[in-house]
Amino acid sequence: MVSSVYYFDYAAATPVDERVFAAMKPYFSEHFYNPSSPYAQAVEVRREYETAKQMLAHTIGATGDELVMTAGATESINLAIGGFSGHKITTAAEHASVLRVIEADGGTILPVNKHGQVTAGQVDSAIQEDTELVSVALANHEIGSIQPVREIAAMVATKRAERLSRGNRTPLVLHCDASQGFGLIDIHVGRLGVDLLTLNAAKIYGPKQVGALWIRPGIIITPRIVGGGQEAGLRSGTENVAGTIGFAEAARIAADKRAGETKRLGALRDTLERTLTSRFSTAILSGHPRHRLANFCHISFPGIDAERLVFILEMDNVLVATGSACAANSGTRSSVLTAIGLADDVADGSIRLTLGRGTTDASVAAATERIIAAVEREATRTGVQL
Amino acid sequence: MVSSVYYFDYAAATPVDERVFAAMKPYFSEHFYNPSSPYAQAVEVRREYETAKQMLAHTIGATGDELVMTAGATESINLAIGGFSGHKITTAAEHASVLRVIEADGGTILPVNKHGQVTAGQVDSAIQEDTELVSVALANHEIGSIQPVREIAAMVATKRAERLSRGNRTPLVLHCDASQGFGLIDIHVGRLGVDLLTLNAAKIYGPKQVGALWIRPGIIITPRIVGGGQEAGLRSGTENVAGTIGFAEAARIAADKRAGETKRLGALRDTLERTLTSRFSTAILSGHPRHRLANFCHISFPGIDAERLVFILEMDNVLVATGSACAANSGTRSSVLTAIGLADDVADGSIRLTLGRGTTDASVAAATERIIAAVEREATRTGVQL
């Protein structure tokens, strides 16, 4: 199925890499033991589980015991943000899961610039005496813009020290949702300076419903799912052995391919964008021109109905997204596009193409040609000037 | 590995059935699309996901839209119980995940009889004007006793109606953790009369980290994981398509095999217990003699160190549990055995054998012989009279 279509929605879902699947396979029916059981076969499964966590942690410069395995980025985000009380801060361009948790607590939602970014100064100004948590994505899930996380982290650290020196012992931490960035951005938690980091296997050719939350040692968070006390009491339930082993393998492969894929996909994406904007002078690219994920292309054709475009392209075997999958799910206009100030008719004419390992020169050429034909056809049909 | 050992710990973990694995396999790398994406391939994945939920729901006499898919029984339990505020009631023999959530809210923990059971009358007496939830397992995870859930459900319904007639509109619901019972007990939510039911794929030869919570229509619960709004807003995060399809297939197979396996395993278990108690007159069986899961054998050898026994049996290729996996994890004495009033030296001499699809006459004979030899050896070594 994948081979007969041109798939440009790698930000929504990635196929599980065959090596990842091979690594997971023995843990379904053969090494199926409960890692908490006492006999050698189960102890061996626990050892392999812990080794996988260690390998996964190494790819971000951390250790296995600093990771809490979860059922995906949404759970990690809920655990991270919900693990704190007090005032919280995030940006208007965040994923729904971040916004919903912070809104529930009545936090501050910072406006973003036209690329969907905030500055460290903006965050600084929003921090109150009772602020406990700031949450900023590494890269935006719709337009790919990369946030200045390192600068924000340095500012938060300074603020925390300053607050402590005044005797205010309220915790102040920075959570970073790296779901979209992990595949193509080399993350080292020490250098990045964050306190909590959300990772997602499903976006890096690993299994769905597998995620992790990295927690800087010394940070105390309240668990969201309690019971048997697994994951150091922070997330109970029998461990996802197969999923974690698959995630570690996916992260290893991603690290191997990162530099090459970033260069390769960036060049393909640039060609795609150049060709489309040359042909359509009214087309608008969103996302930061340079500080953006190499595989993201978000393009708007003002006056064109993107939902129809997606449908026409699908008939032509080119699969692209309108906004994000989650926004599509709820049937509402993307909050990210509103936040970056796109007019409604521009936002409604937006498609997102995200490239991945299966993307080639030929698939980009085919997609470009078919997008041009589809946009021209729709413009003719509706009388829109391009 | 499984074929060379005699596995008697099916309550801790079950191998994934090969048909279940075959059903899941296409959804990792081939039909990997995000069910929320708009194109036909993804819509098809969503349809298959919804069909799987429908099939799973049918096995308990429900419909697919009444199920919330989760990452396992622990999450289902946290969602069910944590979804209510007010006073809560459970029993001292429940799984750690039920106890931890209810204890956190300062609820009532009812004592159990020597078989680990409560009566509807006991629950009735504990219900206060502000009680919102009662949680009782279908079958105990350590000794297999079946609770009188139907009687408790009828009482709760009467109480609710009576309370409502007096103008008290506080919700009152019954949650049932059916993790252990689902494989061998035919569950029909309508006939059972519960309001919330926790199911677990990992105990019925399905994948780990896959669970469901059935919610009776009309019951409003607060979600624990928010974000993209999947599962009708009750559990956000990209759906576990492969896991859910695997769970549905596992439930279908379990339904097919239920009657036959209950009879077959019950006979094997009875032979095992008869042989062991004939040989050791001081041995004590726990769990209700009749109202008990057919595959559970919980036996205590007073004065014998069960941890050593498990180790010796493991050397002899017989895998059994001491207490439950979760209790073993935390290294403390099982709270179930304390709740049913077993003296410490009896509790510490307890092993749990749980039978399953791989159990045969030959494996029971081999296990029996090796358990007798191990107990005799330990008794001789320590001078314990049997």
Automatic annotation (TrEMBL), chains A, B:
It comes from the Bacteria. Coiled coil: none annotated. It holds the Pfam family Aminotran_5. InterPro entries: Aminotrans_V_dom, Cysteine_dSase, PyrdxlP-dep_Trfase, PyrdxlP-dep_Trfase_major, PyrdxlP-dep_Trfase_small. SUPFAM superfamilies: PLP-dependent transferases (SSF53383). GO terms for molecular function: cysteine desulfurase activity; iron-sulfur cluster binding; metal ion binding; transaminase activity. Its cofactor is pyridoxal 5'-phosphate. It catalyses: (sulfur carrier)-H + L-cysteine = (sulfur carrier)-SH + L-alanine. The keyword Metal-binding applies. Belongs to the class-V pyridoxal-phosphate-dependent aminotransferase family. NifS/IscS subfamily. This is Aminotransferase class V-fold PLP-dependent enzyme. It comes from Candidatus Mycosynbacter amalyticus.
